[in-house]
Design brief:
By secondary structure, this protein is α/β, with parallel strands linked by helices. It has a single domain, classed as Vaccinia Virus protein VP39 (Rossmann fold). 30% of the residues lie in helices and 29% in strands. It has five helices and nine strands. A seven-stranded mixed β-sheet has the order 3-2-1-4-5-9-6, with helices on both faces. A two-stranded antiparallel ribbon has the order 7-8. The radius of gyration is 16 Å and the shape is globular.
């Protein structure tokens, strides 16, 4: 498996899941060939692209026009097939069935997203989200418990990189949250 470096993606002013967080997130999702992934708040499409390269069928929903442009540009650059949806989750999502879901951005609609997952994420399917704010982290943990997800994991990741001058530049700490939908 060859991972894509951040600088290889076509970038803009839309947030992108960085390399260190992206590899951990895809690992927590357990992406494999034949998986069906829904990427909510897809940004530049970095999670979608990497997952498609691993053989997953991907739907990516993004509400920002620039994000849609970047996802399409990156999907062309890396020659992958991704179903790109312009809109907001959950209201602009069709009734599709998938076994993996990544939440990169929720637009403040986590409650509605989890209601959508209740009907569309397969039993034993995995949901994984990346959160910068404690409010979204806490709301997600509460929703995972309310909907009786199992194998709930939470990790706080802090990373930094060295710039050309040798100075370490810290990035925002990210909480990675994972849960597995029960078949109850």
């Amino acid at each position: 498996m060859k991972w894509i470096k951040d600088e290889d993606f076509i970038r803009g002013n839309i947030p992108m899941t960085k390399f260190n967080i992206r590899t951990l997130t895809i690992g927590h999702l357990g992406i494999e060939k034949g998986d069906r992934l829904l990427d909510i708040g897809a940004g530049t499409g970095s999670i979608s692209i990497e997952s498609a390269l691993q053989g997953a069928l991907v739907w990516a929903i993004e509400r920002e026009d620039e994000g849609i442009r970047l996802i399409n540009a990156n999907k062309d650059k890396f020659n992958v097939n991704i179903h790109v949806i312009k809109g907001q989750a959950p209201e602009d999502l069709a009734a599709i069935s998938f076994n993996k879901c990544f939440i990169g951005g929720s637009g403040g609609k986590l409650e509605g997203i989890f209601a959508y997952l209740e009907n569309n994420l397969e039993n034993n399917g995995v949901v994984c989200g990346n959160f910068i704010t404690l409010n979204n982290l806490n709301e997600t943990l509460n929703l995972l418990k309310r909907y009786k997800y199992k194998e709930i994991e939470t990790h706080l990741i802090q990373s930094a990189y060295m710039d050309r001058g040798g100075l370490m530049k810290g990035q925002n700490p990210i909480s990675i949250v994972k849960g597995v939908k029960t078949d109850d």
